[in-house]
């Protein structure tokens, strides 16, 4: 009898071993239906406290409420965002580790570094864009210019005499002005600072003459009269300064760029989970309170039509900033 039971158990064990792995494992659809059933971590390759970090935390808090699971922001600054981005790239592709990527970490770094410890965008599954923010073209209030055309004319009359600041070499505040310099055909010198606050303070004090930066950084200085806003870098004007024209309107048709951010997952994350993340996050981004919060920082809430559309956008951004980096010979410091 004992022998017979042993034989029957062995037969059942052998039969189970022959079952396809997919039948025994949780299917992607089932995994998505059960997702999330444990805390989610969002890698943020920047320090806490900035405007984008505040927006991210607002969205993650709403996700926590909707899903009944903690959605934790894990700030890992350093090396132009490479440290935090690599952690996300190496994470298990199950939807429980995500990346909050920006124009710098996702697009600019690709051209800035000769070698990265991950491939962008191949090592990620894009989910959705999040925020888009204009840069203001600022000049010192004492500079005798009232428009972008005046600035270009002055720069051409005194090649190499005007300086523009940035929040650091290789940052969007550096490469955006470089892209415009190339388009306008002017010779202005770059002066890097350690952060946007230091650069805009230098602009107000007359150490530099030009700075391209976000409205949230610039607005107090514009209001004081110490700096003047000549144009905005996005395709549309911004509500905070409706009388300030775009660069395109100022004589450079088609010229536009923005600082942006979005959510990505590690490559290989099941598509049903990526799609679920996309639907939920886009719904939150479109809510009025989140849109109002984002607009306070001079930005606009932007969501991608689909994860695939965000992927197309990312590839175009990588190509755009790579061209600027190659034309200027910029390298990470």
Description:
- The protein has 333 residues and is an alpha/beta fold.
- It has helices at 2-18, 21-24, 28-33, 51-67, 82-90, 103-112, 148-157, 172-184, 196-204, 215-224, 271-285, 288-296, 307-328, and strands at 40-44, 71-75, 97-102, 124-133, 136-140, 163-166, 189-192, 210-213, 227-232, 259-266, 299-301.
- Helix content is 45%, strand content 18%.
- It contains 13 helices and 11 strands.
- The protein folds into 2 domains: 38-130 and 259-328, D-Maltodextrin-Binding Protein, domain 2; 136-232, Periplasmic binding protein-like II (D-Maltodextrin-Binding Protein, domain 2, 3-Layer(aba) Sandwich), CATH 3.40.190.10.
Give the tags.
333 residues, alpha/beta, D-Maltodextrin-Binding Protein, domain 2, six-stranded mixed sheet, five-stranded mixed sheet, 13 helices
Task: Give a quick rundown of the structure.
With 333 residues, this protein is an alpha/beta fold. It is built from 13 helices and 11 strands.
